[in-house]
Amino acid sequence: MIFHIARREFLHYLRSPGAYFVGAGLLFIGGVFFSLVIDSYTRFAAQGAMYGQDPLSISQGIIEPLASTLGLLLVLFLPTLTMRALAEEQKSGSMALLLSAPISSTEVVLGKWLGLMSYLGCLLGLGMAYVPAMLFVFGDPPLAPLLSAYLGVALLCAVGAAVGIMTSSLTSNQVVAAVSSWTLLLGLWILSFLESLDGWMGSLGTHIGLIVHYESFSQGLVRSNDLAYFAVVTAICLFVAQQRVESQRWR
Amino acid sequence: MVLGRILGAVGGLVLAGCGIMGFLVPDLPGLPWLMVVGLASIGAWIFMDWEAVGGFFSSRGGRSQAASWVLMGLVAGIAGLLLHLAEKNPKQWDGTEGAVHSLQDRTVQVLKDLPPERTITAVGYFVGLGDPQQEAARRRFEGMMQSARSTRPNLTFELIDPDASPTRAMADEVTANGTVILTLSGSDSDQPSKTERLQNPDEQDLINALVRLASDRTRVVYFTTGHGELSLDDQGGAGLSLLSRRLAGLGLQVKELNTLREPTIPEDAAVLVVAGPRTSFTTAEAETIKQWVDAGGSLLVAAEPPRPGTPEGRSSATGLEAALASWGLAFQEDLIFDEVMRRAVGDATFPLCDRYGYHASTDGLRLPLLLHTARTVIDTQPDPEFITVFHLVQTSEAAWGETALDAEVFQLDENDHPGPVTAIALAELHEKAGARGGLVVASGDADWLSDGLLGEFGNLDFAVRIFGTLAEEEDLVKLPPRETAGAGMTLSFVQKLAVILLAVLMVPGGAGLAGGIVWAWRSRL
Fold first, then answer.
1. CATH number attached to the domain at B219-470
2. Which of A81, B232, B234, B445 has its CA 20 to 30 A from that of A248?
3. φ/ψ (deg, to 5) at B267
């Protein structure tokens, strides 16, 4: 049943012009940043070659800055895709129909989340396929940092989608859901800046900050604590959404 | 009623905050009291609003909702615990070329070889946001510490912003950004902890500091006596008690040595210091010292210049001139005057030296060195096959070495040594038949080591560095360089343009076009 809901959700995104326009915006800004990264990389590489320096590695010169930028873009764009996930169902009244069907609230939430993840996978997998293609055509990129960066992007999408579904479950107003989602994701992002401070604020930034945990993936580093962070935040958000959907059965 | 609900909300928030902080900073002062306040607030709410609370729990929906909240609390607690455990025992997989984010095998081995009961504590002082270089250094240090912790769980590290915590930085006598204080605890209560200070350390610096700290070999710094040198016991401004304490903190024992009575340098001597002698060493003493240095010893000679206007007339000859000359160093018979300091503080005999020469011991030092009544040190151009001389500390161009000390007005003329002049130089004696070569530091001033000046500007940092260099052990780790450079990529102008067009126009344009088609299709339905 989860996959049935996920398929329905995925097809809904494919039939929604808004999802395409949001995707186009994300790909456009991502493309601009990619062009800037490529431009500065080739210029640095040319300067380095002139002074007889070792070539700037592709992972440090292209993959790392691109993955970092893409992370911020996802935080900014994801709420616009997730805001309708459950809020629309609540507003249109289709949630009551959904809950009256022999489907558990867990299946509803997981199905929505998987559908959204599938759409994001298609969007970034197809829309940014030119990045690895170009790297392999014109260079010889190391595979491990590339895979690590992809893993980081996938985990960030998982957290962003889960936060969006959670806020969308708490309100029937899509705008409120989107703004709440932005606030939470940007809040987690900004908390990372506390990392350099002393005491409990620094500790808060280190443990909860989104960049702190995301950055290592873009640097080609996979840490168990970062994996745990993304898994736990995703699970908590989906659990809260499930509890919220479940509570609607009581009313 | 309303007050009760407000109290309930505040209590809930306080308890949630305590739960989060309990995981992040378990030893936060006042945390138990905050929890009591939170529980009391919730208790007050239940008491004041009993009817509503009771009514809520008597309904089926209310009970389900309460159960849901309890369940969410439990899940949050379990999630926090999982995160806490993951942070405590992190494992990592480094996919970069040359594994640049991981410690090298030799480092991991050193960490594993340390007795398990000895804990390692590292405190790094790095400025916060705003300085990209320091930010990079901070990240490098943090990365190394995280990797080290995955090998050695009883390693703890802390990052302190000296601007945000000036009191802590002052207590640790930190005067430069990028200072790292590394402490290794003793095996038991009888064995004291040892501490070492490092400046912007890389992996090799850190691991060698640990090797030194873990070494049971006693390294002694001997200060010569019997020639009117600055005293270790003198608690006044002219004594060396502060330096002595700092050296003890580096794991070095400090002892006095009367070379007139002792015909040989003790075997445990790591460094021999001649700090401001007023009378000359005898030829026999000088020969003993020379033989010891030639055999691989480390010597610091800090000699005061001839001082005008002092009735007792401090001698400028140390008796070690011939030995120093054989190592390519010589003191000049002059007195350094600094015009900038004359204008700034009214005394030109306090040269402020802001030029550090290229050497591992001065790498990263930023604060200048403040001297008092210093003389110039010169390099006598020794054979570079056997000796390398480094000009470690130089004055600014506004300073000069005044040779006419009896003149009434001091000013730079053709007989003087124009600035920048070298105040401290180091001679590295090359290895002979596999044996370690000696090290000699000639300082044209001894006062900068004294209690009165050691805490000024960058004096302490430089002193720590120079003694660290002189007392360096032979069994230190030399890490191989990493193979960091991966294959590069070059693009012609046309290729770059094609990639940019694809990324900026074609792909987003295609997605937008698809959206337009879907929109048109849906409008027709």
1. 3.40.50
2. A81
3. -65, -30
